[in-house]
């Protein structure tokens, strides 16, 4: 929609009002990639585009200026109110599948017993509402058998060292895992990722953080790795990035990663260094997160070089909310009367709690009538901070000028 000239506000409104149309698009994908959906295979951006873009283009030609109305009023023709009865479209079958899946997990036999798969999941700690929610999002989950699908996966995850209490979270994030063959898909995928340096001893943490990575195609993973190589990340660091932040494989290279890297270069920041130190930064929006932070610091008097230095020292700077975090802490920083250069030296200041760390420490320093550089004031432990304050107070009281 944005490529057709609509702005972000309009496209967001369209998405929020077009659930039936989105279900319709999902139905098209499921029909085209039926065998892949059955095993929980994650589609790549290219694969999705290959199916949907030609359809959307034909819809654009058919409706012209009424495209938005056609999408929002689907399945009714553009310009006709939704209340007017029309034949049920293929997308309704998606809704029916969701309803049937939820009904299936809720059913019980004459003795009041739940289906075996549901009872097993509840024994793991899952609430029935959680299971219903998964079935509503991914109807195939309700039909996975206990002995052939669910139990083998759970036992495999437990053998990897994943805590039993973490299993419900993993299934909620990626129920498709239950549909993947351990020997034909999941284990080979893990071995493939290990060739890129994913630490095999940390699979439990990787899967808990981002279980979807095990459902991605090799093409999708390789595209992410090729991008990291393209911007200059070493092979050794690629493995570390994939282990610490597997989410990076979920971002589109052409629509997300490369434009973000280009923006960082334009501001004097090395994208290879930044993605190694703080890969989650590449998941942020250039327009909503990165550019506003840069513009704020430039407006208050810091140079482009200062900003690049700050980010090189503390990559997480961009991950903080401008209005809820950076601005209030900047205003308090001014009240502390430190030289502005202290923030360039120690941008980690923005990572500390204003009310629980910064204000109490500065208050104690002022009350003691001593001066401590920003780094020492915040980065030391409570015990060490108190010792520094006492030592400075002792020197102050013993100096000739204090007599």
From TrEMBL:
Q: What InterPro entries does the entry give?
A: MTERF (IPR003690), MTERF_sf (IPR038538)
Database matches in Gene3D superfamilies: Transcription termination factor 3, mitochondrial
Looking up SMART domains in the UniProt record yields:
Mterf
Which key words are in the record? Transcription, Transcription regulation, Transcription termination, Transit peptide
Give one Pfam hit by family name.
mTERF
Per the similarity annotation, which family is this? Belongs to the mTERF family.
What is the official name of this protein in its record?
A: Transcription termination factor MTERF5, chloroplastic
What organism does this protein naturally occur in? Answer: Platanthera guangdongensis
Question: What are the leading ranks of the lineage?
Answer: Eukaryota, Viridiplantae, Streptophyta, Embryophyta, Tracheophyta
């Amino acid at each position: 929609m944005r490529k057709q000239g609509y702005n972000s506000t309009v496209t967001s409104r369209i998405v929020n009002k077009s659930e039936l149309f989105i279900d319709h698009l999902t139905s098209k994908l499921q029909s085209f990639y039926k065998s892949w959906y059955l095993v929980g295979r994650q589609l790549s951006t290219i694969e999705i585009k290959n199916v949907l873009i030609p359809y959307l283009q034909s819809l654009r030609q058919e409706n012209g200026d009424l495209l938005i109305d056609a999408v929002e009023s689907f399945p009714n023709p553009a310009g006709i109110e939704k209340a007017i009865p029309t034949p049920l479209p293929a997308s309704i079958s998606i809704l029916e599948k969701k309803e049937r899946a939820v009904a299936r997990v809720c059913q019980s036999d004459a003795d009041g017993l739940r289906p075996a798969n549901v009872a097993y999941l509840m024994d793991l700690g899952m609430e029935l509402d959680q299971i219903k929610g998964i079935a509503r999002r991914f109807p195939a989950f309700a039909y996975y058998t206990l002995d052939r699908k669910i139990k083998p996966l759970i036992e495999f995850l437990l053998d990897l060292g994943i805590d039993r209490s973490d299993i419900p979270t993993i299934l909620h994030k990626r129920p498709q895992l239950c549909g993947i063959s351990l020997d034909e898909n999941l284990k080979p995928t893990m071995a493939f990722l290990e060739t890129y340096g994913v630490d095999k001893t940390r699979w439990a943490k990787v899967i808990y953080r981002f279980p979807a990575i095990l459902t991605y195609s090799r093409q999708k993973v390789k595209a992410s790795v090729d991008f990291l190589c393209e911007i200059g990340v070493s092979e050794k660091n690629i493995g570390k990035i994939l282990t610490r932040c597997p989410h990076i494989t979920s971002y589109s290279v052409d629509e997300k990663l490369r434009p973000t890297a280009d923006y960082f270069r334009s501001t004097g920041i090395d994208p290879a260094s930044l993605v190694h130190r703080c890969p989650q930064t590449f998941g942020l929006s250039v327009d909503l997160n990165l550019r506003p932070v840069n513009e704020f610091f430039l407006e208050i008097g810091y140079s482009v070089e200062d900003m690049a230095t700050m980010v090189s020292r503390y990559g997480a700077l961009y991950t903080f909310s401008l209005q809820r975090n950076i601005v209030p802490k900047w205003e308090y920083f001014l009240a502390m009367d430190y030289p502005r250069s202290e923030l360039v030296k120690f941008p980690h200041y923005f990572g500390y709690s204003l009310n629980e760390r910064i204000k109490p420490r500065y208050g104690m320093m002022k009350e003691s009538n001593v001066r401590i550089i920003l780094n020492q004031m915040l980065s030391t432990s409570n015990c060490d901070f108190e010792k520094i304050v006492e030592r400075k107070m002792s020197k102050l009281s013993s100096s000739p000028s204090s007599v």
